[in-house]
Structures are given as structure tokens and as C-alpha cells.
Write a structure and sequence with these properties.
four-stranded antiparallel β-sheet, about 180 residues, 13 strands, mainly beta
Length: about 180
């Protein structure tokens, strides 16, 4: 007999950011696709994420556009659904990629450089034992929301920190 166990872990990951204005309101998480083209502006209006999914086809593309120059850069192409949210100060955004019916991973991007932080790698670096729960059975690593509560600024380093709530859900079979 196989016993199925559903375990949930909640992580609070602090990501360094450049100093910027921080709003107390949590930017919404936008679930995609929700039409042929979805535009998700950053809170400061400097950037717009553009998700294209014509006729709900498999050609799903996420790009970022600089609102001043209208220069567009491709972030990636995706097979299924995404959920996206901007950090309150617009210095980062996350993308949850539900790339299969039983798998989801999460990434944080810098809109200026498009430098990518893979939250699975960050999780395993902080807790090597977490690797056993990623990519097994049903495994969903998802960023849930940004939080400015408890944020701080360091005047000597010029760095502030936003917090990102991350959840790892998984279902494993036990003998």
C-alpha cells in the first residue's frame, strides 16, 4: 500500500535591491494566459511585461518593454501558464512557470539586465536537503507575493531588501 503525503513549506527569501521608493501595497499576481496579449506595467511605470499567446497557441512569449524607448527584449518562451508579479519598487519581478501539469518553478528577474535568479537553486543553496523534494512526483515551487513589511535600508551599502514569499508544495509516495 502506498501512502501519499502532501507537504507544504513556506520560505521567506530576502533579495537585495537597489534603493528605491517602496509602496506599502502589494502588487497583484497576474495569472496568464488571459487573452492574446497581456500587458503588465511595473509600479513605477518604467517597464511593461508583455505576454503574447495568440489564440491560446503553444507560442507563448514573455517580453519586457522599456516604456520610454519602447525597446522590447525577449525574456522567454513558455509551454503552459505563468504567474507574474512586480516588486513594489519595480527593481525585480517574478515569473512562476507551470511548465508541466505536475511541475512548476519560479524565477526572479532584474528588468535592467534580465539577470535571472532561479529560486530552486537558491533554495537548495540554503538547504541542500530541499533538493529531494524538487522534480519528484508533483513538485511546485512558487513565489506567492512581495512583502515590504520588515524591509530595511542600509545607508552605507545603498541597498534595500524586499521580501518574497515562496512556497514549495510537493506530493511524494511513501512505502
Amino acid at each position: 500500500m502506498v501512502l501519499r503525503v502532501l507537504m507544504t513549506g513556506v520560505l521567506l527569501i530576502q533579495l537585495p535591491l537597489l534603493v528605491g521608493q517602496t509602496k506599502s501595497v502589494h502588487p497583484p499576481v497576474v495569472n496568464l494566459p488571459r487573452g492574446a496579449v497581456s500587458r503588465i506595467p511595473s509600479p513605477n511605470g518604467k517597464w511593461t511585461l508583455i505576454f503574447e499567446c495568440p489564440n491560446y497557441s503553444s507560442a507563448r512569449r514573455l517580453s519586457i518593454e522599456d516604456s520610454a524607448s519602447h525597446t522590447r527584449r525577449l525574456i522567454g518562451e513558455y509551454a503552459r501558464s505563468l504567474s507574474i508579479s512586480w516588486a513594489p519598487d519595480s527593481h525585480l519581478f517574478f515569473v512562476n512557470d507551470a511548465y508541466a501539469s505536475n511541475e512548476a518553478l519560479s524565477y526572479v528577474y532584474d528588468p535592467v539586465t534580465l539577470k535571472t535568479t532561479d529560486l530552486a537553486k537558491l533554495l537548495v543553496a540554503g538547504d541542500p536537503g530541499a533538493a529531494q523534494f524538487l522534480g519528484v512526483g508533483h513538485s511546485y515551487l512558487q513565489a506567492r507575493r512581495w512583502s515590504t513589511r520588515g524591509s530595511y535600508s542600509s545607508s552605507c551599502m545603498g541597498i534595500s531588501t524586499s521580501r518574497l514569499w515562496v512556497v514549495l508544495l510537493f506530493n511524494i509516495a511513501l512505502p
